Amino acid sequence: MKMINMSLTMITAFTVALSTSTLAAGDAAKGQEIAAGVCAGCHSPDGNSLIPNFPSLAGQHPEYLLKQLMEFKADDSGTAVRNSPAMTPMVAEFSKEDMENLAAFYASQKATPGKVSGDTDLIALGKVLYHGGNIENGVPACASCHGPTGSGLPPRYPALAGQHADYTLTQLDLFNKAERTNDNKVMQQVLTRMSGTEKRAVSLYIQGMQ
To answer: Where would a tag sit more exposed on the chain, N or C end, judged by fewer CB atoms within 10 A?
Structure first.
C-alpha cells in the first residue's frame, strides 16, 4: 500500500509540474454561445447537468476539459484517443479555439453543491475508500489524485465533488473493462482491485461531496 501511494504521489507531483504549460486560454463568452447551441441539451445551459448519465461540467478545470474535448475528436483516420460514440460526432467540427472557449466557459460556471442520495452504509464505505483506500486489496485513496475535497489536480485529475453517481460509476466500469481509451494507466490499475460494491460506494460518496 505504501508503494502504491508513493507511486501515485509521484505521478501527481509530475502532473502538477506540467500543468503550467497546458493551461487552456479561451473566451468564456464565445464558449457560452457554442455551449448554448450544441452542449446544453445534455449538460444544461450552465454545465450543471440534470441528467444523471451526463456529467456536470460547471467548475471543472479548463485544462481537463480541453484535454477531454481534444481526445474525443477523431483524427484523419477516424480514430479518437477517447472512444465515445456520443461525443466524437459532437466535437467533429470544433476547432481547438472552439474547445478552449468551451473549456473557459464551463470552468467559469459555479458548480451546484453535491447532494447525498442512496444507501447510507454504502456512502459510509465510499467515504472510507475515497479518503483511505483499501489496504487489504491494494486500493489507494481516491484523494491521492483527486484531493481530499474532490477538487482534483489539473490537467489529468478532474474535480469530482458533486458529480452524478451514475456517470461516475459508468466511467469506473469503463476503466475497469479497458473500454475508456484514455487516462487508463493509473485508473485501470486501481479499478482492477475494486469490487462492484466498492465502485458503487465511491460513486455515491462523490455525488454528495461539497
So the answer is: C
